[in-house]
Amino acid sequence: MIDWKNTKAAIYKAKKESLKPVFDIDTIRLEDLLHIDEQKNALCENTRKFLEGKRASHALLWGSRGTGKSSLIKAVLNHFCKDGLRVVEIFREDLGALTDVSDEIRDLPYKFIIFCDDISFESGDASYKALKSVIEGSIELPPKNVLVYATSNRRHLIPEFHTDNDGTIVKNGEIHYSDNVEEKISLSDRFGLWLSFYQGSIDEYLRITDSYFPNLSDEKRAFMREEAKRYAALRASRSGRTARQFFELFGDKFL
Questions:
Q1: Can you give the three-state secondary structure of the chain, one letter per residue?
Q2: Cβ(132)–Cβ(186) below 8 Å
Q3: Exposed e or buried b for every residue in 169-187, given b needs 16+ CB within 10 A?
Q4: What are the backbone angles phi and psi of residue 13, rounded to the nearest 5°?
Q5: Do 141 and 107 meet the contact criterion of CB atoms below 8 Å apart?
Q6: How far apart are CA 10 and CA 89, in angstroms?
Q7: Phi, psi angles (nearest 5°) of residue 89
Q8: pTM attached to this predicted model
Q9: Are 39 and 88 in contact (CB under 8 A)?
Q10: In what order do the strands lie in the sheet with 59-63?
Q11: What is the pLDDT of residues 14-48, one digit of tens each?
Q12: Residue 9 half-sphere exposure toward CB, CA atoms < 13 A
């Protein structure tokens, strides 16, 4: 049994079919995340309403890799844990256990975010149906103290193909999707809050990189920035993750 008073987060472990408390948690803060203010404000407001017992939405954070989707959810936990927010992370391959996990926490005096990181589903994979059940319930209503926050590179979570549009028609100016399309968008439609993340400009990338090197001289900063631009070009990425990786690899060179 987890002592949730002293535990902020847990991960579902499939082999043991139980939740494992997590104490060594990423300490990232909201103020550490740059150039995603709109997304931060929206997710914080949604979480605040949830904690206050007001209407709140399940959230899908989707978009380019390394742009802060997962980090934002972790930062939200760190910001609101003092207010009774707790997080349970469950991996995509374990989603079949999601109903049992939600049953285990539904009567506890805390508010829970079920965190599903980097999820997507291949054609023929029906495990997403467990996620749909927890979000909207079945004959039993979904727990009032649980929201799902998921991240994905795909907006619709399930791959789409041109053949899926067979049977789609336009009638009286309205699009009527084929059964295949309706099924594939029905999961993402269950998330009331969609937050989009995109790679920023080279200037935004450099400002993020600068935040890891706050005390450089002007000469060293100019050299560091040129090196950071080369690294971004090699990775074909200007994301916050790329900036952090640059710091981890080359930070000692400039500090």
A1: CCCCCCCCEEEEECCCCEEEEECCCCCCCHHHCCCCHHHHHHHHHHHHHHHCCCCCCCEEEEECCCCCHHHHHHHHHHHHHHHCEEEEECCHHHHHHHHHHHHHHCCCCCEEEEEECCCCCCCCCCCHHHHHHHHHCCCCCCCCCEEEEEEECCCCCCCCCHHHHCCCEEECCEEECCHHHHHHHHCHHHCCEEEEECCCCHHHHHHHHHHCCCCCCHHHHHHHHHHHHHHHHHHCCCCHHHHHHHHHHHHHHHC
A2: yes
A3: eeeeeeeeeeebbeebbeb
A4: -110, 115
A5: no
A6: 6
A7: -95, 135
A8: 0.82
A9: no
A10: 18-22, 9-13, 85-89, 111-116, 146-152, 59-63, 193-197
A11: 988 999 999 999 999 999 999 999 999 999 999 99
A12: 21
Amino acid (1-letter code) at residue 224: M
Measure Cα distances from 111 to 8, 60, 83, 114 in Å.
11, 18, 9, 10
Question: pLDDT tens digits, residue range 142-192?
Answer: 889 999 999 988 766 555 444 444 444 444 454 444 444 455 556 667 888
CA–CA dist 214, 130 (Å, integer): 46
**Tens-digit pLDDT profile for residues 214-229:** 999 999 999 999 999 9
CA angle 102, 72, 147 (to 5 degrees): 20
Q: Is 63 left (phi over 0), alpha (psi -120 to 50) or beta?
A: left
Separation of alpha carbons 47 and 146, rounded Å: 11
